[in-house]
C-alpha cells in the first residue's frame, strides 16, 4: 500500500499540471471544466475559491465523473473495485456501508482502491461517532481518527496521516461534490445583494406598524448596545464561565471546550452547530447578560409557564455552519441577535418556496440540498430571475434581524459566530399560531414540546384566562380587515377612474 501511495501521488501531480494548462484556455460551463483543478489548488475556475486553512481535506484524489472522459485510457477504479456492486449509485453504496460498524469498514477498506475511498467517506465515520459515542468524544482531526482513538485507545492514530491515501483514477460526482462543498469559500457574488430595510432607534409603534403588522423583515441596528453579552462573550470568557458545561450540538451534547476543539479543526460540508434551548437554565449568567429588545417584549407563549415550547437558543458555530431553509416552528416570529461574527441571511416570503426546496404537501417535511453551500452552488443563481426576489443581508455583531412568521430563511455564518435567538407570539400573530396548533397533523407539525396535540387547547385556555376577550377581539378585527380588503378590491375593479382593470361583457 505504501509503495502504491507514492506512485499514485506522482501521477496526480502530473495530471494536475496538465489539467491546469488546459483549463486556462477553456470557458465551458460543464461541471467537469469547473472542477477539474480541484486538487489542493487555491483557485478553481469561474471564481470558486477553496478554503486556505491548514485543516486536511480528506479528498483521497476523488475526481468529478466528467474528468474520466477527458483522461483518455483511464478506467474508473470506482467501478472495477466495487465488483458486482458497481451498478449501485454512490448514495446506495454509502447507505449500505452505513449499516456497518467501524471494524467492518476498516476491513473493507483493504479490499480495493474503490472500497478504500468509499469506506473512508467522512460522513460514515461522523455517524458512527455521533451514534455510538454520544457520551463524549474528543475530535481528532477527522471523524475516522476520532472514532478509532475513542474505540481503540492503545492504537496510535497520529501514526496514520489524516488525509490518507490518494487514488488517481477514482471518478464520482457525489463524493467529489461532498469534498468540494466542504472546501469551498463563499463566492463574493453570493454575499453582495443587500436589500433588507435597516432601521436604527425606531419606536416600538413604528416597528409594529411598518414591520410586524405587514409581516416584513427588518434589520435593527443599535438595539443591543447595552447588552453585557456584547462586551463579554468571547471565547475566553465563555470557556471560563462554562467551558465544561454540556450544550446541545446536533444530535449530541458536548462540553463547550470540546465543541471549540472540534470547530477549530473541522472542515466539513455541514459543520455541527451548537444550538441549545436550555442554555439559560444551564448557565443562568448567560441568561442574565442579555435582554429582549423592546420590540419583541410581548411574548404570549409566556402564559404557559414551564409548559411553553422551546423559545430561546444560544447559537455558536464556525464559518460555514448555519441553518438550511426552513420556516420557524409553530408559526412563530423570531429575532436573531449577532453577538460575535457575522451571518449571511436569505429570506423568502411565505408564498414563495425557495428554489431547490421541496416541502411535503402537509408541510411536515422539507427536502432540500444536503448542505447550505450546495444550495448556493446549485440554486442561488436561480434567485436572480425568481418572480419575487429574496430579501438578503449580512447581519453583523450588534445587529438584530426580525424574521416574520411563515418566512423561509437560510443562514450561513461567514466567520465563527455567537448569537441569541428567540421565537415569540405577539397579538399580531396570535391567531396564526392558534390556527397552526389546531391543524389536523399537529402531532407532526408542532415542535419544541412533548405535548404537541394538546398545545392548542392549553394555550387558548391560558390566553382566555390571562387576557379575557382578546381572542374574540382579534378575530373580529381580522374579519373587519378582510371585509375592507374585499371592498377595496371591488372598488378598484369597478371604478374606471382609478385606471384599474374593469370587467366588461
Ligand atoms: O443559524 C442561525 O443563526 C439562524 C437560526 C434560525 O434560522 C432559527 O433559529 O430559526
Explain what this protein looks like in three dimensions.
- By secondary structure, the chain is an alpha+beta fold.
- The protein folds into 2 domains: 184 residues, no CATH class; 278 residues, Cupin (Jelly Rolls, Sandwich), CATH 2.60.120.
- A 7-stranded mixed beta sheet has the order 1-2-13-8-15-6-5, with no helix packed on it. A 4-stranded antiparallel beta sheet has the order 7-14-9-12, with no helix packed on it.
- α8 crosses α9 and α19 packs antiparallel against α21.
- The longest helix is centred in the last third of the chain and has 25 residues.
- The N terminus and C terminus are likely disordered.
- 2-oxoglutaric acid (AKG) binds next to β7, β8, β14 and β15.
- It is found in: Nucleus.
- This is JmjC domain-containing protein.
- Belongs to the JARID1 histone demethylase family.
Number of domains: 2
CATH class of the largest domain: Mainly Beta
Instruction: State the total count of DSSP E strands.
Output: 15
CATH architecture heading of the largest domain: Sandwich
Looking at CATH, the homologous superfamily of the largest domain is: Cupin
| Percent in helix | 25-40%
GO molecular function: cis-regulatory region sequence-specific DNA binding; metal ion binding; oxidoreductase activity
Family: Belongs to the JARID1 histone demethylase family.
Organism: Quercus lobata
Keywords: Iron, Metal-binding, Nucleus, Oxidoreductase
